[in-house]
Task: inverse folding
């Protein structure tokens, strides 16, 4: 008993001494302790506020053929296209197999099949990327086909497949699916409070969504915030501001960090271009391409919740992002959208704007009614443009500053047309209004 009591007393003495030593290190080194703790908190908050990749890379259109006609649907209170993509995470989707390609007649039949829902991405993504977004290991191991439409039938128990369709080469891939219930999809579809009659037409440059009747869209106004150059130099250069060499030519400011990094800011246009000559690795596959582009885009505008991947050019290694309002893209006074990322062996280039939409405010403008797409094409023909000249045509929102308050941006519905690689509003191509008279 005495021996046991001695052991206990010795252990207690060791515990007390250890506690005192540890306390001494903590008390005399609080800076290190606090710094480590803050890093953990900062990382957690950053991840919490980070826009998830499956939101940035989500469909922007839902087309539902419920009977004999097709309708573009959306809900002004809930992003049903993104919600439908999330529903697919519960599906057991198998490996896609090619059904056909370069067959326009068969392709048109596929995208116009009855009792089907289509999730439409603004640009081609890939099978492995979809597997990453849906956390589907089978898709991540599959052949990496490109596509921009996901099509599945509802109320048809005999069709147990999901179809992936590519508007560029009229290719369709089919994957068997299990555990896919149509009820959650139909529930989301029936939530739509906007229902626009459309027709999918094949033209020279791909599939165009035609609005068969005049389109009535709301106008919006937002308070805009404008970032200073210093906010970008701090995050992009990750170095002491004393190391930056600044020069000015009229309203164009250039910031150089040695020969490795450069930021050019055009104060007149509000456009910036960042060149990182140290980042010379080019993504080897499409998934890495999308992941790296996403990381760069949200590091520039991590608070923009309505930012979407708009265009992906795998050959030129370019990614373009735009902001969206209720499924419709916002076209600003730049040729690259909101953000453009380009990878090359000579380094990466990031083009972006310093203006961000922050808070919606009541709009004094009434809703706008746009002409049908057929009427728009007739107007373009009258102005001298052949249907074969038109690379794309979309209903969207035009970014305009209010004359009496530059901090408020009006988003006005109109048609935007792409010809010779340039997006312009319909009025700029034709000198005519896109609005229904």
Result:
């Amino acid at each position: 008993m005495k021996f046991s009591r001695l052991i206990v007393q010795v252990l207690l003495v060791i515990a007390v001494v250890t506690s005192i030593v540890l306390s001494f290190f903590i008390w005399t080194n609080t800076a290190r302790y606090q710094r480590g703790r803050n890093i953990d908190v900062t990382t957690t908050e950053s991840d919490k506020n980070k826009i998830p990749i499956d939101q940035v890379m989500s469909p922007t259109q839902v087309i539902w053929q419920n009977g004999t006609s097709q309708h573009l649907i959306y809900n002004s209170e809930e992003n049903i296209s993104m919600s439908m993509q999330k529903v697919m995470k519960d599906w057991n989707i198998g490996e896609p197999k090619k059904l056909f390609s370069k067959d326009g007649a068969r392709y048109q039949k596929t995208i116009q099949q009855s009792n089907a829902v289509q999730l439409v991405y603004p640009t081609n993504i890939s099978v492995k990327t979809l597997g990453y977004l849906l956390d589907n290991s089978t898709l991540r191991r599959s052949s990496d086909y490109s596509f921009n439409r996901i099509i599945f039938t509802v109320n048809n128990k005999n069709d147990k497949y999901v179809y992936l369709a590519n508007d560029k080469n009229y290719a369709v891939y089919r994957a068997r699916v299990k555990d896919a219930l149509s009820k959650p999809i139909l529930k989301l579809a029936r939530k739509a409070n906007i229902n626009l009659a459309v027709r999918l037409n094949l033209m020279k440059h791909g599939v165009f969504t035609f609005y068969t009747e005049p389109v009535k869209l709301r106008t919006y106004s937002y308070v805009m915030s404008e970032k200073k150059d210093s906010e970008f130099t701090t995050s992009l250069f990750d170095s002491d501001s004393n190391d930056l060499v600044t020069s000015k030519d009229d309203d164009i400011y250039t910031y150089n960090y040695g020969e490795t990094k450069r930021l050019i800011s055009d104060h007149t246009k509000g456009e910036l271009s960042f060149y990182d000559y140290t980042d010379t690795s080019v993504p080897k596959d499409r998934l890495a391409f999308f992941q790296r582009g996403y990381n760069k885009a949200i590091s520039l505008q991590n608070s923009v919740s309505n930012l979407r991947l708009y265009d992906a050019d795998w050959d030129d290694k370019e990614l373009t992002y735009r902001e969206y309002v209720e499924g419709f893209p916002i076209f600003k006074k730049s040729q690259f959208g909101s953000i453009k990322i380009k990878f090359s062996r000579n380094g990466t280039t990031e083009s972006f704007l310093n203006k961000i939409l922050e808070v919606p405010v009541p709009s004094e403008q009434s809703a706008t009614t746009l002409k049908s797409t057929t009427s728009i094409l007739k107007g373009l023909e009258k102005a001298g443009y052949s249907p074969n000249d038109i690379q794309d045509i979309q209903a969207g929102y035009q970014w305009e500053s209010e004359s009496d308050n530059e901090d408020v941006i009006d988003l006005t519905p109109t048609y935007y047309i792409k010809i010779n690689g340039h997006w312009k509003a319909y009025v700029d191509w034709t000198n005519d209004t896109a609005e229904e008279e």
